[in-house]
């Protein structure tokens, strides 16, 4: 097996439970600090909500990059320079909004802001408890680069959308439902996998030299660009079916056990 040079890891459900790190995970990252392995956060979150975690895991100050907003943004965690932004345009937003005929609430995300369209609704507040982004009212007359548009609502309402709504209008986009209250719509090229591939290409790292680990539907795309894909024990059977390996659950420090399995700590 080639030497492992990079680990791409999801956050929520992989190393974070209820937004908290276990002592085992923190200790493992401190051990990895002595290696030359690139440790790459790959998450639906934005960079501003992660600075404390970067410090705790000793990822800051090392020219590390993170893959953010479900792969739409590849960004330096120290300088915040954006290496890649698979973005949507205002015309995409208007097309999505008109296709939904005002039947669903929408939220709009850029690398550093969260926008509501008509009003601040409960689901956007719930989502932002994790994201910790600045919230503003969206102005569709202002041309900006959009990282993603979310269809939001109760889990019951989005269940109905998935079962009954004609989704032909989404054929030119990448979309994924990773949490019950939100369906994410992104540039067709945006995914955790494509964000990871862009960064691996920059570093010249081969798939055989990389591990990807996660628990959610949006992690499947990054499994496809590495040779060593690992699903968490708490992942769904669908996610596990796409992974080469399955580790223990987050409750039992599955991330740490994955590192031990590969003899990395």
Automatic annotation (TrEMBL):
Does the record's keyword annotation contain Glycosyltransferase? no
- List keywords of the entry alphabetically: Hydrolase
Q: What Gene3D superfamilies has UniProt attached to this entry?
A: 3.30.1240.10, HAD superfamily/HAD-like (3.40.50.1000)
Q: Which Pfam family, any one, appears in the UniProt record? A: Hydrolase_3
Task: Give an example GO molecular function.
Answer: phosphatase activity
- Asked if the record carries the keyword DNA repair, the reply is no
What PROSITE patterns does the record tag this protein with? COF_2
An example GO CC term for this entry is: cytosol
Highest taxon, organism lineage: Bacteria
**Record-linked InterPro entries:** Cof, HAD-like_sf, HAD-SF_hydro_IIB, HAD_sf
UniProt-recorded name of the protein: Cof-type HAD-IIB family hydrolase
